[in-house]
Amino acid sequence: MNAGNIYDYINEIAPFSAQAEWDNSGFQVGERGQEVKKVVLALDPTAALIQEAKDRNCEMIITHHPVLFHPAKQFTEQNIAYLAARAGITVLSAHTSYDCAGNGVSDVLAKTVGLQNVYSKENPFLRYGSIDAQSVKDFAETVQSALHAAVTYNLSDKIIRRVAVCGGAGSDFWQEAKENGADLLLTGEAHHHEYLDSAAAGIALMTAGHFETEAPAMHILHLKLQAQFPEVEFIVSSQTAPVQYTGFVKED
Predict the structure, then answer these.
(1) Which pLDDT tens digit goes with each residue over 117-133?
(2) Which of 79, 99, 88 shows the shortest CA–CA distance to 22?
(3) Apex CA 30: angle with CA 47 and CA 212, to 5°?
(4) Is the dihedral of CA 221, 85, 70, 78 positive or negative?
(5) 244 has pLDDT over 90
(6) pTM beyond 0.70
């Protein structure tokens, strides 16, 4: 089994051709021919992840966020791609291609927080679904429990029935979500002015952490890969969210 086989399978379930034009999904470090017996999956490419892969004797890393996003002028010990190459570890990243894929990041998020009758429209990164009529505050409690996350929101007393979701950074889609009939947009992060503007427009905006809204999809990808390649050991990294919140205790 080699890295190219794994690339080809991911390309089938989340085609790299669907990635945003500004993205850099696909092979980041290494080559297709790399023999693979053990793979670790994680959201973020970090030095700690490279060390974890080395400690676990993994030949390959699969991340959501790309190792190489912007042009690099130096490849030193501070560069994650350099660390991976020096360790002989192949790195593959499935970013926006997995965000918008069927049963990808946004679909998994929708299911995780309990949306029913999930569907998409023109924007491949948004998913819509229905919930029983409830307040934004009550839905926030559901999201907190489902994602083990700290949740922020506006319009706490607004009664909502139709919810749009976008894992990660999707707050700029709130206007589109409203135009398509959503009462609330759930995403990972948002700016202060977006809470103000969305509230003024009458649509609630809720965030539950960039890491937390995307991490569930990595567990689903892990299950798919393990079923497809039983001869390879796939491991979900012990990586945790890089942001902590005072007063919030994560459930085990």
Answers:
(1) 999 999 999 999 999 99
(2) 99
(3) 45
(4) positive
(5) no
(6) yes
Q: Which residues pair with 207 in a beta bridge?
A: 152, 187
Phi-psi region of 202 (alpha: psi -120 to 50; beta: other; left: phi over 0): left
CA–CA distance, 107 with 178 (Å, rounded to integer): 19
Separation between Cα atoms, residue 216 and residue 214, nearest integer Å = 6
Tell whether the model's pLDDT for residue 247 goes beyond 90: no
Task: Find all residues with CB under 8 Å of 118, minimum gap 6, and list them.
Answer: 107, 110, 111, 127, 128, 129
CA gap 27, 62 in Å, rounded: 9
Q: Which two tokens stand for residue 12?
A: 């089938």
Sole residue written with tokens 């570890």: 89
Give me the DSSP letters along 76-97.
STT-HHHHHHHHT-EEEE--HH
